[in-house]
Please model this.
Amino acid sequence: MPIFTALAFMMKGRATCVLLIVTLFSAYYCCAQGQNNFWAFGWNCGLDFSSGTPVWVKTKIQTSEGCGAVCDNAGRLLFYTSGNYIINRNGDTMANSIGMLGNSGGNAVVGSAVQGVTIIPFINDTDRYYVFTTDCVESHSPAYPGYLRYTVVDMRLNGGMGDVDLNYKNIILDSFISEKAYPAHGAGCYDWLITHKYASKYFVAFRIGVNGVDPVPVLSPASLFADSTNEDSYVTGELKVSQDDKWIANTDIVTGAVELSSFDNATGIVSNTRLVDHMPFSAVGVSFSPDGSKLYADHWYHGMVQYNLSLLPDINAVTSSRTVIGDSGVYNAMRLGPDNKLYINYINGTGRQVLRVINQPNAAGAACDPTELDPPVDSNMFTAVTLGNPVIRSFNVKTKSFDTSLCAGTPLTLFVPAGYDNYTWSDGSTQTSETFSNTATAWVCASSLCAVETDTFNIKAGDCNCIVAIPTAFSPNNDGKNDRFKVQTGDVVSFHMEVHNRWGQSVFYTSDIHHSWDGTYNNRICDADTYYYFVKLECLSGKTIFREGDVTLLR
Model:
């Protein structure tokens, strides 16, 4: 939902200089997204990304595999955990976390579940977090049948340092669950935790909404190689969800399968699973590139490979695109960083334990630029196997900036419609409208439970006889609101506008400033899509203005 229906310039005297249609996009609480700026993993290892470049930090975590950490939205560390205990930002163990049962059990090595920890924030309480845990394969027995549990951390406890809420500690959600789990955004005001049954075809998706965790999961019998006689099938390896929440990649060490499935984040259903690759007893880590065009998987001792997902739906072509990336060594789990680089736990050919880095993971083949991150200088820090899961929020992060002009002596008033709980302007105002009389760089942010929208705009002194404002979207549904795509301007000597579809075909042309596009071509209704415009006009002052960009046609 856009915050602005229009940016109205309130004029004194002659006609309005400009009407600028503004669409605002989502951003979580109008702040930087810093919740993944700190990683804690392995033996005493931490990486701090807050400067934009990862810096080694010594921590108190000790885990072979499962791990997790979360920062506040500004990037300040809140806590990290192995699933057995939780450490606050001061390095102290949260007292009530002692006795947590995740990521271990029975005869298991402490912290030996590959994706043994997943942290998901509460949707309706910014101070509370779910810590979901899976059990290690080493612990599987009648007494430890692969539990999925959760524990709740409340950051208001212990004087703001946080502690476990004892009413929600070691809550069992399911059993016969593999070592893998991963979060995904829901299509509405909810998130998903996705995991997998071992020795089974079933993906399991738990919905987490404003009313808590729904204890009844969505079950999808979608995997290809499940063997009920072999309890080790699908018990380990990694499960990842693409950035757009449309795809799931799943690996299995026992079968060596690398699977790709469709995910419906409205229903939680996993379907249409296809085999990308198959290397017996070897598939471990997996990750999508940030733009989803590439899939990376490591085959343990067989190296790391890249697949070109842009070749879909031809899965055979995807498999044939298999390209080995980097040199030999032992590759383990992987994770996308907040810098959009891909990090992989790795033992190189000399036996040194390091982090492999794919600097350009969207690029094909060697252009992805694999390198190594210099290891920590402290000999008591070891990177181990996994790097943890990301922390997600139920908000899409999109922002947009606009340049606009202000006529001298004429105030500019911006209006925000109702429907949000909180409004914040760059000058500190919390009203539903704000007036500016001087040039400035300003922003406005409005938030409700599951929607945050923001926009930044630059107000500059301009040629008021020829100010140009161009909508970013219009909806020709005859409701009397934004039905036509029209350039807003003052008096001009000449005017020219063309609109093209994504294939470069011209669908509209005019040289009359009073004409506008109704979303049709040759009397046929055009599809909802993104279209591209080119505008050229000459002002009364003799100034020539060119504008080009895209506009979204909504149906």
Notes: Residues 28-373 form a domain with the Methylamine Dehydrogenase; Chain H fold (CATH 2.130.10.10).
